[in-house]
Amino acid sequence: MINLIYPDDRQRLPASFSDIPDGTQYETSCRMMKKDGSWLWMISRGQLMETAGGKTAIISAYMDMTQEKTNMEERDKKAVASASRERIFQDVIQALYSYCATVNLNTGKYTLITGRGMETTIARCSSTDDYRQACYLLLHGVKEEYIAQLKEKFSLEAMITQKDHPGHMGWMEYEAVIDGTPGWFEVNVYIGMDSDGNPTASVFGRDVSEVHRQADTQSKLQATEAPSKAKTAFLFNMSHDIRTPMNAIIGYTGLLKKHLNDRKLAENYLEKIETANDFLLSLINNVLEMSRIESGKVTLDESACNIHALTAVMHVMMDEQAERKHLHVTTDISIEHPDIMADETKLREIHLNILSNAIKYTPEGGSVHVSVKDYPSDTDDRFIYEITVRDTGIGISEEYLPHIFEEFTREKTTTESQVGGTGLGMPIVRKLVELMEGSITVESEPGKGTAVTVRIPHRLAESDQKQKHFAYLDVFDRDLLDGKHILLVEDNDLNAEIAMTILQEEGFDVERCENGEACVKRIQGMPSGSYDLILMDIQMPVMNGYQATRIIRRLKDKKKADIPIVAMTANAFEEDRRMAFASGMNEYIPKPIQPSILRHVLTTVLSRVPADPEAYRNWLSFFKESEPFQLFRESHRPGNRAAGYLVYEADDDETLLYADENTVSMFGCSSYMDFYRYVDGSFKNIVHPDDLERVESEIRQQIFDSEDSIDHVSYRIVRKDGAIRCVDDIGRKVHSENGIPVFYVSIIDTSE
User: Fold this and answer.
1) pLDDT of residue 521
2) pLDDT tens digits for 467-497?
3) Alpha helix segments (H runs only) across 532-643
4) Assessment of whether the complete model's pTM goes beyond 0.85
5) 714 and 727 in contact (C-beta within 8 Å)?
6) Integer CA distances (angstroms), 723 to 352, 688, 714, 716, in order
7) How far apart are alpha carbons 426 and 357 in whole angstroms?
8) How far apart are CA 580 and CA 560, in angstroms?
């Protein structure tokens, strides 16, 4: 029998039956071999007994328990495996999360499992097992903007509402300062049950600051690479766009040489060369302007300016382009407060860019409408000025519209659209608008047109800040300019030849100096009044234009020191303009010289014509051509009495806008500028102080009279040499575009 028992199990059997007390039962288990060689688990129960013959016998019963033993072993294996998985799960959780806790949703009790890296916080939380109190302690250091959301999502009440929905309850990231270290943190909550069947919430937290740092680094890398890629694409387009006008200039210049005798053909070639020049100049200007903006060199230089004058200038500069394409341009200006504080140069650049685009991208025969209005802002000291330019042009696709303000991007290349441009105009506009704390919006539909709206807040100019605005005009009285003597200071022979030719064609007498030092010597050596104006280059050898101007302004001869000086330079930025004025120059012309701008600036400096072209035509026509004025002159100029005319604006300062040569001579002044300085730019200073109150009363009365009324008042004037003269003042009132009365005045010397 013993041979049937598995060897390892035999030791569990009694060593000898003598060891078993008589009558004692025993029980053991062992494996026993079946006939086929397999093993069975058997339970053996037996008792030692003495037989009648005096021998000892064992009575045993055997029961097969193989299946029960197998089941038991399986349960043991599963238990071991389960315990192993639990340990592994806990190890993984603790590796992934620095903070682990469970919450019994029936009792609200909180049990902390781990809190690595949060020792100070955990020390605070260990003082309680209440989840609500633990939440209060755990929120210490969390940024204020995240606290409300954390409470709403992960409060005990929120968890309880989810207890019948096991699984992932929610996730959130937040910023906090944990144990003195700022960073980003993540919390995850899972709903489940514990071993006793109680609903629980498992809360896991971890530091994800490194993930955010990597994401920020990647984002910055992409942000760095994106402009680089865009600039590369831009340079490819620019290479084409620059070569296109250059090819046109070179090609048509060659053709022009061959066909100089064919006037019509030559004019056609010249027009195309001029168009290519304009395009090439705009390319260069836009690239330079964007470079300056990105370098942070652009700042605002605010002064008093007038919206009406600004708008007039804008249209004068764009009229030629619009007329060339037969565009119908209309304007609607509804402004209550025209005088504002603004950087007029940058404001003009914004408006011209938008209007130029509208004209550029509107096919021949289309229309462009400009509306300007103002309305109160949220602050008491500012008004919002809104300009909208609406065209019937080619429009912008819906896909490209969100990218219209991106630098170095264009919807189509010049080849595709047949319209030249850098793709920098709108980005420049947006940056300037933002610099002025304004906003810009664009609405567009392909084939139907585009509307661009700019809104910029401006402070109103006070009465003592208002400036009188003079503009570049297409119309001017050539009699005022013919024969004016200009000294051109230019070191480059080619530039000098171009400038002299343009000036001579405009009716000026021109002489040239090669540098600033030669200019100063010429002015010192010539009699006063030899030159009416100096056109001064800036970058020159020996002595530059700024240095020469400062020396001239310090000359003892006041007439020489006061000569008008206009900068003429390739330094085309705003700070260069300010430097020119700071040196004592009167105006500024950028190179390359454009004849229309040159004419406008010189007209402004020499004749001081008013800004509004239409108003200029009106008063000039009235005094030179109107029948009432002709009759007036015949009846009020007997004998050889001196007479002239002037124009002034009836604002608080009664600002002088214009005076002719006869009026200037009547006051004993040598030039208009001399006269303007003598009366300090105001009509008030023309009148003798003892007569001023009476004259101003007459003026106030005339302001309320009808538009066609002509007023007559007599008063005394004080000449520059101190002599007192009597004059008759015959005036007519009109209203300027900004609504301020303007008086056109004939002034007659009645002293004799």
Assistant:
1) 94
2) 444 333 333 445 556 778 999 999 988 888 8
3) 545-553, 558-561, 574-582, 595-607, 613-624, 627-636
4) no
5) yes
6) 49, 11, 17, 10
7) 9
8) 18
